[in-house]
């Protein structure tokens, strides 16, 4: 059994605090409590709130890259497989991974007022878009760059609505429409 470092435990707890209580609730003390760490542990790894926020973004980005890289050899071969993958992602992100996705959206809003956070989020987004662009290029999209951005925006919108105003929203028809538009 692997024991997680205090830093990793703090980051995992910070994601849960962000995802369940919002960005205002993110304090070193709350993260210590949520992680079951002694008081002051989170501040030993992240001296300021800004460094904690940046640490969370970088940790989420690394986890996302690892997940994408793990699935890299299974690039969708058909438009239907691409829609299936996007739909599956949206359902997982708004179901079992709800807190993580909610944390990410909270970070998006916080980044509107924080250049450093915005730059870190943009680097992670670029990695995701590159994968979508490669898939769309292989599927014959005329403009894979714009299409990837459009599908990303639709995907974000679908997930935001599932997390907030329309939990029962079926992501498939919206993602299907975006993929169809990209390929025709």
Description:
This protein is an all-alpha fold and 184 residues long. It contains nine helices and no strands. Helix 4 (49-70) packs parallel to helix 7, helix 5 (79-93) packs antiparallel against helix 9 (171-183) and helix 8 (144-163) runs antiparallel to helix 9. The longest helix is centred in the last third of the chain and has 24 residues, at 115-138. The model has no long low-confidence stretch (mean pLDDT 92).
Number of helices: 9
Radius of gyration: 18 Å
Element-by-element helix/strand order: HHHHHHHHH
**SS elements, strand count:** 0
User: What's the pLDDT, averaged over the residues?
Assistant: 92
Helix content: over 70%
Estimated share of beta-strand residues: under 5%
Shape: elongated
Largest sheet: none
Distance between the termini: 50 Å
- SS class: mainly alpha
Please give a quick description of this structure.
Helix content is 74%, strand content 0%.
What is the fold's blueprint, element by element?
Blueprint: H1 6-21, H2 28-35, H3 41-45, H4 49-70, H5 79-93, H6 98-111, H7 115-138, H8 144-163, H9 171-183
Helix pairs in contact: 1-2, 1-4, 1-6, 4-7, 5-9, 6-7, 7-8, 8-9
Attribute tags:
single chain, 184 residues, 74% helix
């Amino acid at each position: 059994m692997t024991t997680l470092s205090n830093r990793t435990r703090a980051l995992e707890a910070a994601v849960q605090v962000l995802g369940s209580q919002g960005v205002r609730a993110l304090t070193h003390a709350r993260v210590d409590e949520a992680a079951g760490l002694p008081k002051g542990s989170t501040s030993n790894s992240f001296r300021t709130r800004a460094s904690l926020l940046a640490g969370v973004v970088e940790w989420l980005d690394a986890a996302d890259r690892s997940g994408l890289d793990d699935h890299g050899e299974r690039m969708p071969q058909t438009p239907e497989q691409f829609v299936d993958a996007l739909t599956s992602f949206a359902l997982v992100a708004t179901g079992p991974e709800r807190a993580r996705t909610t944390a990410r959206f909270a970070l998006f809003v916080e980044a509107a007022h924080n250049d450093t956070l915005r730059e870190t989020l943009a680097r992670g987004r670029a990695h995701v878009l590159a994968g979508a662009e490669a898939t769309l290029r292989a599927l014959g999209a005329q403009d894979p760059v714009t299409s990837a951005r459009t599908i990303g925006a639709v995907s974000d919108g679908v997930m935001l609505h599932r997390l907030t105003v329309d939990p029962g929203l079926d992501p498939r028809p919206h993602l299907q429409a975006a993929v169809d538009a990209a390929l025709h």
